[in-house]
Design brief:
Distance between the termini: 74 Å
GO molecular function: hydrolase activity, acting on glycosyl bonds
Keywords: Signal
Signal peptide: 1-26
CATH architecture of the largest domain: Alpha-Beta Barrel
Pfam families: Glyco_hydro_79n
Radius of gyration: 28 Å
Helix content: 25-40%
Strand content: 15-25%
Largest sheet: 9 strands, antiparallel
Number of strands: 23
CATH superfamily of the largest domain: Glycosidases
Number of domains: 2
CATH topology of the largest domain: TIM Barrel
GO cellular component, one term: extracellular matrix
Shape: globular
């Protein structure tokens, strides 16, 4: 038997080694299609693992949406406390209406903790219902309000006003005094009734209608008969007045009914609440103008034990009566002192757990019923001074919108658009705060169709017993159809970078080599996370002197360019002209 010649072995080994190296390199270059990590030749002597952790590959499923939300997904809330502190009289402000119109289309929920202390009085404008004010200016102040109301009555269509600076300054002083009274009531759990007059309802509806918002009015569920059944007298009077004025209003009954025992020492169980909602539905059907009006509820509190029990019983007995299930969520109490607490991933992840609890109950009794987050704020009790109205709180807000959309929450109602506490979008000088600017950009760019995101290289392999919580959060939607700058088929990706370092995102798959419009939002000024101003692509966002919005100008990133996210920032990225099948219809 012949033997191999030893002379040929060195050349054969060298050729074989070269062939193997070539094959390995070709496999590595195409590894994205078959692997969840991205790899390239290490530069500067850095180990391959370094690149895997700093470069993230991003792709989006453009074939079909995973959720289709309400067109009014991002909506607003006003607290009834504005009747007590007097700000209701200033909802006709042209600037305030302009700011609200910027977030339309949306729902406007008029409700909150004091919903269950509202009493309707069918009278036009009685000074005794206006609440307290400092004696030295009360009479002149009231006279100014009456003169303003007379001037508004002469207008046709939207009734808008420009209030003098001195009048606004007096109102801010009055509101500050009243807020102390309201806070004392909240801490003592002893609440006084609030009268909503016919004139008050006129002003509220005028604001919503002029701003392009659909009003949802909360009714007092604690107005009870001696046998604990719901007293409908005030509600019937309100319905008749609204029908006579042809006000297009949707309705809800009560606010956090699971907390009634701690608030007023009287409990309303799920069976009684279901009967109350059935009675309200019958009442709406008896008033011809509202016989097809929408009804939402039960507006339960955070899904802890007693709230889940109430929601379960209510859905079992009366789930078919309502058009959507509403509940509330607050992330923290008022004792938080650091801006960095708003960026904790464990805090951001609590919403997913709460949504799971609520949807489980709803799907058990009424599968397919729409679920709304009917009251959402960073913190309870009106928020946290010098924190809830800063850039730091916007991480919670945008992550909430992203999580809620992916989980199929149909509408998110933000508490509060104006006035109450420290969690509002617009301050008492009618200036937009960071969460307002984020909401405006979201409304302009993000549509109701939610897309699945595919990410590679986002995090290292978790160790046994350790939970990896993502600090780079990525969500994708079809671009809003209301935006004239982008054709149908465009995609909007919004990214939250909670890291203290810059992160690079490379568009891959169907997004590869596409032109991208960047809307990068960062804090403006020296306050950092505590800043009350926002810059878009380096330009500070401010309302114009003529009460117009600034132009939201994108920064164009050339096709194939890597997205660089600065530390602790939020960015919106529109991939235009991609003609995504899911977004064309």
């Amino acid at each position: 038997m012949p033997k191999c010649s030893p002379c040929a072995s060195p050349w054969s080994s060298l050729w074989l080694t070269s062939f193997v190296i070539l094959v390995v390199q070709s496999v590595i270059s195409s590894s994205y299609s078959s692997s969840s990590t991205y790899q390239r030749t290490a530069a500067g002597g850095k180990r391959p693992g370094f690149l895997r952790r700093t470069l993230v590959l991003l792709d989006v499923n453009t074939r079909s949406p995973i959720r289709v939300l309400n067109d009014n997904f991002l909506s607003l809330q006003l607290d009834p406390a504005i009747i007590r502190d007097g700000w209701l009289d200033f909802l006709s402000s042209r600037r305030l209406v302009t700011l609200a119109r910027g977030l339309s289309p949306a729902f406007l929920r008029f409700g909150g903790k004091r919903t269950d202390f509202l009493q309707f009085n069918n009278q036009k404008n009685l000074a005794k219902f206006r609440g307290p004010g400092p004696d030295y200016y009360l009479k002149n102040y009231e006279d100014d309000i009456v003169r303003s109301d007379i001037a508004l009555d002469k207008q046709k269509g939207c009734k808008l006003a420009h209030h003098p600076d001195i009048m606004l300054e007096l109102q801010r002083e009055k509101a500050a005094t009243t807020q102390l009274v309201l806070l004392k009531e909240q801490l003592s759990n002893i609440y006084s009734n609030i009268t909503i007059t016919a004139r008050s309802l006129d002003k509220l509806y005028n604001f919503a209608d002029c701003a392009g918002l659909h009003l949802i009015l909360g009714l007092n569920a604690l107005h009870r008969n001696p046998d604990n059944s719901w007293n409908t007298s005030s509600t019937l009077s309100l319905l008749k007045y609204g029908a006579g004025k042809k006000y297009n209003i949707s309705w809800e009954l009560g606010n956090e009914p699971n907390a009634y025992r701690s608030m007023v020492g009287r409990a309303v169980n799920s069976t009684q609440l279901a009967q109350d909602y059935a009675k309200l539905r019958t009442l709406l059907q008896s008033v011809r103008y509202y016989n097809r009006a929408h009804l939402y509820g039960p507006n339960a509190g955070r899904p802890r034990k007693n709230a889940v029990v109430l929601l379960d019983g209510f859905m079992k007995n009366s789930g078919s009566v309502i058009d959507a299930v509403t509940w509330q969520h607050y992330f923290m109490d008022g004792r938080v002192k650091k801006a960095e607490d708003f960026l904790k991933t464990r805090l951001l992840d609590t919403l997913t757990e709460q949504i799971t609890k609520v949807t489980k109950v709803v799907n058990t009794h009424t599968p397919g019923k729409k679920v709304w987050l009917g009251g959402l704020a960073p913190a309870w009790a009106g928020g946290i001074n010098n924190l809830s109205e800063t850039f730091a709180a916007s991480f919670l807000w945008i992550n909430t919108l992203g999580v809620a959309a992916v989980q199929g929450i149909d509408v998110v109602l933000r508490h509060s658009f104006f006035d109450y506490g420290y969690a509002h979008l617009v301050d008492q000088h009618f200036n937009p705060l960071p969460d307002y600017w984020f909401s405006l950009v979201f409304k302009r760019l993000v549509g109701p169709k939610v897309l699945a995101v595919r990410v590679a290289g986002l995090q290292r392999k978790p160790q046994p017993g350790r939970v990896i919580r993502d600090k780079l959060r990525i969500y994708a939607h079809c671009t809003s159809y209301y935006n004239p700058n982008y054709m149908r088929g465009s995609i909007t990706v919004y990214i939250i970078n909670l890291h203290r370092s810059r992160k690079k995102i490379k568009l891959a798959g169907t997004l590869r080599n596409r032109t991208v419009h960047q809307y990068l939002l960062q804090p403006h000024g020296e306050g950092g996370l505590r800043a009350r101003h926002v810059q878009l692509n380096g330009e500070k966002l401010l309302m114009g002197k003529d009460e117009t919005f600034p132009e939201l100008k994108p920064k164009v990133l050339r096709a194939g360019r890597t997205i660089a996210m600065p530390p602790m920032t939020i960015g919106f990225y529109v991939i235009k002209n991609i003609n995504a099948y899911a977004c064309r219809r």
